[in-house]
Amino acid sequence: MSIFEIQEAAQKNNDMEAYAATIHDDFEFIMHLDNSKMNKEQTMEMFSFMMNSADFETHESRCLYENDEAMVTHAIMSFPDGTRESVLAYNQIKDGKVIRLETGAHFSVKIPSQKKTPLGVFFEKTTLKNMARGQKSFKHKNNSSPVSDDEIYMMVMLYTYQHKSLDYLARKFNVSYFDAKEIIIRSRFGGTCG
């Protein structure tokens, strides 16, 4: 069986042990959202949460290419906040296991609800607390006035569709780099801002 077939069967059967067996001990996951990195333990915790939640669905998963050195996959993912994402994943293979996973995605933007979802609960329980869902207000750097919902929407649009950098967004909307990053992360995971 190929790595792709093993991973697909593991997901279908909700078998985290079988899935983890395809992941190298020195594994690194580079997330498409902000190029942050997660190791095998962190990644398996996130995958386990997503696999055990009925709120996440993978559609049309397929392997575009696989050999002893690399695997490229594509799938459509649905998230609890109503967004859908087309995910292209590059998997580097070493010793018959995935040692590096890097994703690229295009997602549909949906104004998130105020409802706290299971993904938000997961992120609150992990070290990724900055990605937790929930109401949050942001302020401009110069006068501490609140960043409006329209400004947040424009930031997400510029980042998503015009591929503007976080530095650009911080300068244009007069917010700190870290606030711009958090706004984009929250919009991606359905966290409410405003």
Main beta sheet? 6 strands, mixed
By CATH reckoning, the class of the largest domain would read: Alpha Beta
Q: Shape from CA axes?
A: elongated
For the record, give the distance between the C-alpha atoms at the N and C termini, rounded to a whole number: 48 Å
Helical stretch count?
Answer: 7
**What is the CA-atom radius of gyration, in angstroms?**
18 Å
Portion of residues in beta strands equals: 25-35%
Number of domains: 2
In CATH, the topology of the largest domain is named Nuclear Transport Factor 2, Chain: A
The helix-strand sequence is: HHEEHEEEEHHHH
- Helical proportion, percent range: 25-40%
Major sheet strand order: 2-1-6-5-4-3
Poorly predicted runs: 109-135
CATH architecture of the largest domain: Roll
Average pLDDT level? 77
Quick recap:
It is built from seven helices and six strands, in the order ααββαββββαααα. With 194 residues, the chain is α+β, with helices and mostly antiparallel strands.
Protein described:
The structure is a single chain. This protein has 194 residues and is of the alpha+beta class. The chain has two domains: 3-107, Roll (Nuclear Transport Factor 2, Chain: A); 118-188, no CATH class. The chain contains seven helices and six strands, in the order ααββαββββαααα. It has helices at 3-12, 16-20, 40-51, 118-125, 149-161, 166-173, 177-188, and strands spanning 23-30, 37-39, 57-66, 70-78, 84-94, 97-107. It has a six-stranded mixed beta sheet with strand order 2-1-6-5-4-3. Strand 3 and strand 4 form a beta hairpin. Helix 5 crosses helix 7 (177-188). The radius of gyration is 18 Å and the shape is elongated. The protein starts with a helix and ends in a 6-residue tail after the last helix.
